[in-house]
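A sample copied in:

***
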Amino acid sequence: MTGPRDSSFPYSAELRTYTVEEANAALPNVRRLLGQIVELTHLLPELQDQARIHAYRSSRANGGEGEHEELELSRSAVRDAELSLQRALVELDEIGVQLKDPQQGLIDFLSYRDGELVELCWHLGEESVAHWHRIGEGFAGRKGL
């Protein structure tokens, strides 16, 4: 394990390095969390649009009870989704996994390869961790293990 993260980062978990075996062992939990993150990342804009539509209708309906109730329900759905997303992000961070693309379901595990700090790269839908890249190279620099 390496030192603590930059204190400007919103979470306080320490950086963690993984072996390929440890990364693969963590995948069931990572799959669950990343699946939630991808789903909520796609769902939130729709929920926010619905809340805006209900807010507009509520303002035009001069306080009609039905529109006001729909507005509160839609705002509640947005809050619930945001809270669920935040929880999943924190949980992913707590296990030391770096989220690279929440829409595509792309994450990295810090690791060492031949003494160099690198990233094990995994994409939602892949069976196991089978790729790596140097820090900063990103998905385009993926190489097979």
